[in-house]
Amino acid sequence: MKKEAFQSFLGVNRGEGVERVTTLFGNPDEEYNNSENHYIIYYYRFGDSDVLSISFGKETMVVETIYFGHRRIQNTFDWLESVGIDDPKAYLLDKHIDEIIDLLGVPDEEEPDDFFYRTDNMEVNFYCPEENDFFCRRIMVSWFA
Known about the structure:
By secondary structure, this protein is of the alpha+beta class. The protein has one domain (3-143): CATH 3.40.33.10. It has helices at residues 18-25, 73-83, 97-104; strands at 8-9, 12-13, 30-33, 39-46, 49-57, 63-68, 109-111, 114-119, 122-127, 138-143. The strands form two sheets. Strands 3-4-5-6-10-9-8-7 form an eight-stranded antiparallel β-sheet. Strand 8 and strand 9 form a beta hairpin. The radius of gyration is 15 Å and the shape is globular.
């Protein structure tokens, strides 16, 4: 697997918008839309966990960021199964950072608990906190114009 594989994540391709998201996941459980911000966020929950949030540019309604995962990893996997998404990249969640590095190579940048992979038009951030023995709790994919 290469980091470029994240041009698509959870069935959403870079450049797609709100229509594709609602086709895949249905209507959000909550929507954040503040007139002072340039984005809208859709939140999807499973049980008491926010398992997925997706931000869209207000002017384009194109996906900018996908924030996937929660401390209750099983809720996230249960939700994934309930919506019928089968993306091997999603299962990097709950993997040790060493396993992710074995697949994707050395990160472009490391900060405490965060491991970043970048291309010219995207960034993938694996949050693998030391308090969780460096097992991944969140994957955040950001796409740029």
